[in-house]
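Hey team,

Filing this mostly as a record. A colleague (T.K.) asked me to run one chain through the structure pipeline before their review meeting, and I want the input and output archived in the tracker in case anyone asks later how it was produced. No errors, nothing strange. Just documentation.

Input sequence:
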Amino acid sequence: MRPLLLGVLGCSLLLSVGAFYSASDDVVELTPSNFNKEVIQSDSLWLVEFYAPWCGHCQHLTPDWKKAATALKGIVKVGAVDSDQHKSLGGQYGVKGFPTIKVFGANKNKPEDYQGGRSSQAIVDAAMNTLRTLVKDRLSGKSGSSGSSGYNKQQSGGGSKEDVVELTDDNFDKMVLGGDEVWLVEFFAPWCGHCKSLEPEWAAAASAVKEQTKGKVRLGAMDATVHQAVSGRYGVRGFPTIKIFRKGEEPEDYQGGRSRADIIERAVDLFSDHAAAPELLEILNKDILKKTCGDSQLCVIGFLPHILDTGAAGRNGYLEVMMQMAEKYKKKMWGWLWTEAGAQMELEASLGIGGFGYPAMAAINLRKMKFALLRGSFSETGIHEFLRELSVGRGSTATLGGGTMPKIQTVEPWDGKDGQLPVEEDYDLSDVDLDGDFDKDEL
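Output structure:
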C-alpha cells in the first residue's frame, strides 16, 4: 500500500509542477504557434510570464498570477509561456531567468520588463497604471507601433533593414552559394498576401538569428517577379517559397512554421548542426576565463591531476573525454576550460575543490556567480549525466566563493609532454667531518 501511495504522490507532484495553468484558468497559455496571433497582432495590453516548471519562484507566483488574470479578465490580457518547452520564445525576448514578466503594450515588438511586486494586488495595480498610460497616449495621438513594414524600411516588425539581405540575380551566387554561412531565403512576390503577412516575422527573425548565431546563419529575401533567373533555377512556382542553402549541398525546402519563433528555432538548429565543437582551452590567465565564461551561459571546467601523476597519455585521455562532451553539447554553446591541479588554487578553493579527488569538474554560471560540481565519475557517462541534470534545472548549485570572482594566476601553457621530476642538487660531502670515535659507548 505504501509504495502505491508514494507513486500516486510522486505523480501528483510531477503533474503539479509540469502543468501550472489549465484551460479553466484565465491565464492564456502561449506557444510559438499562437503567440504572434494572440499577442503581437492584438490591440490589447498583455502581461506575459515566462516560466520553467522546475522553478520554485515560478511555483510560488502561480496562484497570484491566476488571481490577477481573473481580476483583469476583459481588461488586460494575462498569459504564460513554458520556456522549458518553448525555448525559442524565451530566447527571442532575451529571457535569462525565471520567472520573467514582460509587458506588451503599444509597441508589441519592444516589450518592457515588468518591475513591480509579485502579489496579485501589485500585478493588478501595475497593469492598470500601464493601461491608463496607454489610453492617454492614444487620446493624444501617440502610437508606439512600428507602423507599416517592408524589407526596404528601417524597421519591420522589430527587425532592421540590414538583417534581411536583399538578394538579386547579380549577387545571389556570390553571397549565398559562395559563402560559408547557412542561408534561409524567401522568394516572394510584392502582390502576394501571404508574403506580406510573413514580412514582419521574417524581419524580426532575421535580427534574432543574426545575434544568436553570430552571423553564421543569414536570412535573405528575393523578389521573384523581378529576379526570375535564380527563382526559375530553383523551380519557384508559389509564394512565399522558403529554401535552405548550405555550402556544397543541394537546397532544401523549408517545412517549418511561419512565425518568427518557428523561423528562429529552425535557424538555430541549422547553426548548431553545422557548428564546430567549442574549443577546449587551458586557463592560462584571467582573460581566458573571463572571455570564455562571460560569453557563455554555462562554463564547464575540468581540474586534471598533476602531469607527474598521469603523464601526457593520461592527461590526453581526460582531455579527450572533455572534447567529446563539448561536441555532444555544442548546441548549448557553453564554454569549456581545463587547468592542472594546484595551478589555480584560489579558484579551486572557491569551488570547494583541492588537495585530492582529481580529476574534478565544475560548471559555472559567471553571470549569476553560481556553480555545480560533478559528483559522479570523470567519464563520458558520468559527465553526460551531470550536464543533462543541469540542462533541465535539476542540478544542485551553490554560490561561487561568496559571490566574488577568485584571483586567477598567470601560468605557462602545458607543452604536451610528460612531466619531469625536479633535478636534485649534488652536495659535496668532502668537507663534512664524518670522523668520530664510534666505539665509545659513553653518553
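Quick notes for T.K.: DSSP finds 13 helices and 18 strands in the chain. Confidence is low (pLDDT under 50) at residues 1-18, 145-150, 152-157.
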